[in-house]
Amino acid sequence: MAKEKTEENARIEPTKSELEILRVLWQHGPSTVRFVMGELNKIRELNYTATLKLMQLMVDKGILQRDERKMQHVYHVVEAEDKTRERLLDKFLDTLYQGSATSLMIQLVEKKKVSAADLKKMKELLESLDNKTGKK
Known about the structure:
Elements: H1 2-11, H2 16-28, H3 33-40, H4 48-61, E1 64-67, E2 74-77, H5 81-97, H6 101-110, H7 116-135
Helix pairs in contact: 3-4
């Protein structure tokens, strides 16, 4: 049963508001609703009840788990950040770019959405990959 729940979670796409909560929890670790609300209020105003309701819905969806052992419930993310990003990126690539990372990269570079530092890192990564495959 637990395995089925994990596989089901992998298909759930967090909403924009849910991603904001996930970012807080990935950055700070397991946290209370009040802490998450405080962090989100640095970006936009959100009240306690709205934050609580959203986090409860995320528990129902299987995105978060709630530790009820203490007076204040502590929430933590079910799926690791890198797994979520990978899954969402795959879906994004498939949906908008027919699975072509090249098309995405070309658009990013052409629209000047890539800084010089990012471009340098990409070049280094590509060179590193070329060197690894060239040695095999």
